[in-house]
Write a structure and sequence with these properties.
Elements lengths: L1 H21 L18 E7 L2 E11 L4 E8 L5 E9 L4 E8 L4 E9 L2 E6 L2 E2 L5 E10 L5 E8 L7 E10 L5
Antiparallel strand pairs: 1-2, 1-11, 2-3, 3-4, 4-5, 5-6, 6-7, 7-9, 8-9, 9-10, 10-11
Length: 173
């Protein structure tokens, strides 16, 4: 009798837990979590009219994370970023890692329709401090411009490092 009672309680609690989990509200469905969705898709990226590489960008983790998968035109350079919105900070974050051992941490948010993220202060090969700013701007024709800039004067001036245009790949229907 005691064994059946324990088994009954165990079954009730385990199915009750499943029910509670499946009925959970979407944690990342608020509008702020969707601000960077314009970047999601399969892209060819050009810089100065030349193919720079391809980018496969997907939503994952129950719509809480945007994952970027970059391959340079020659295939020698690859990288992945994870992008997410932090509702406590009300900011977006990007963590980039690549096959050269590089990494970049960015923080920012939506400004006038563009996603703008900044790195913390870093040190270049000459030992001088600099900050990165990367801006993704959705264009009316469906392309996205990515402008990567650096500042060595605390943000007073910015020098372009990469100016790329993302064009959606044609689907293979």
């Amino acid at each position: 009798m005691t064994g059946r009672l324990i088994l009954s309680f165990a079954l009730i609690f385990s199915f009750g837990g499943l029910n509670a989990q499946s009925g959970a509200a979407c944690k990342c469905c608020e509008a702020a979590f969707r601000q960077f969705d314009f970047w999601v898709g399969d892209w060819e990226t050009t810089a100065n009219g030349q193919l720079a590489g391809t980018n496969h960008i997907v939503v994952m983790q129950d719509s809480c994370v945007i994952q970027e998968n970059w391959i340079s035109a020659g295939g020698q350079y690859t990288g992945t970023s994870y992008n997410f919105y932090d509702p406590q900070e009300k900011k977006w974050h990007q963590t980039w890692v690549d096959n050269q051992g590089g990494s970049l941490l960015l923080t920012g948010g939506l400004e006038n329709g563009s996603m703008v993220m900044y790195s913390g202060e870093m040190t270049n090969q000459a030992g001088k401090p600099y900050t990165n700013r990367i801006t993704w701007t959705p264009n009316p024709d469906g392309t996205v411009r990515q402008l990567w800039e650096a500042s060595t004067d605390g943000g007073a001036t910015w020098k372009p490092l990469f100016d790329g245009l993302y064009t959606r790949k044609m689907s293979n229907k």
